[in-house]
Design goal:
It is a single chain. 33% of the residues lie in helices and 27% in strands. By secondary structure, it is of the alpha+beta class. The protein has a single domain (9-148), classed as Yope Regulator, Chain: A, CATH 3.30.1460.10. Strand 3 and strand 4 form a beta hairpin. Helix 1 (9-18) packs across helix 3. It is elongated and about 50 Å long.
Length: 150
C-alpha cells in the first residue's frame, strides 16, 4: 500500500517520472508536459501544466491547453456546449480562455482539475489524477469534434 507523504513539487516530479513523462520545470518549480500531435484521438497538440497551487501550495492543479482555437463568432456555441458538458459530465472543468475581450481574436478552451492534497498524497495518486485530467480533456475535444463538428 502506498505511503501518504506531504504534498510537494518533488512529489509531483516523482509522479511525472512514474508516468513516464518528459517535462520542463519553470522558475517557480512547477511543471509543463507537451504531448505530440497525434497523441490524442482528435490529433490536437496538448500542453499540460502541473502546479502546486493554493495559499499553502496544498492543491494539485492540472491545467490542459490545446492548440484548438475558436473564432469570436463561435464563442456563444462553444459556451453553450461547455455548459452542456458540465451538466452531463463530472470532469474536467472546462472554460473558454479569452485573453482580451476588447480584441477580435480566437480563444482557446482550457481543461482543469484540482485535487486538495493538504493532508498528503502519494505518487500513484498524482499520476492517476493528471492522466485522468488529460484523458478527459481529450474526451471533451473528441466530443466537440464528433458530436458537434467543432
Amino acid at each position: 500500500m502506498p505511503k501518504v507523504e506531504p504534498f510537494t513539487r518533488e512529489l509531483i516530479e516523482r509522479a511525472l517520472g512514474r508516468g513516464g513523462e518528459r517535462y520542463l520545470k519553470d522558475p517557480d518549480g512547477d511543471f509543463m508536459v507537451m504531448y505530440a500531435p497525434g497523441a490524442s484521438r482528435t490529433g490536437l497538440t496538448f500542453m499540460m501544466n502541473l502546479i502546486a497551487g493554493g495559499q499553502k501550495h496544498e492543491i494539485f492543479v492540472v491545467v490542459a491547453h490545446c492548440d484548438k482555437r475558436f473564432p469570436r463568432a463561435q464563442w456563444p456555441q462553444v459556451l453553450t456546449l461547455i455548459n452542456e458538458w458540465h451538466r452531463t459530465k463530472r470532469w474536467p472543468k472546462v472554460y473558454l480562455d479569452v485573453e482580451d475581450l476588447s480584441k477580435d481574436e480566437p480563444a482557446g478552451v482550457v481543461a482543469e482539475g484540482q485535487l486538495d492534497c493538504e493532508t498528503g498524497a502519494f505518487p500513484e495518486l498524482l499520476t492517476d489524477f493528471y492522466k485522468g485530467v488529460i484523458g478527459t480533456a481529450d474526451s471533451f475535444f473528441h466530443w466537440l469534434k464528433t458530436e458537434h463538428g467543432l
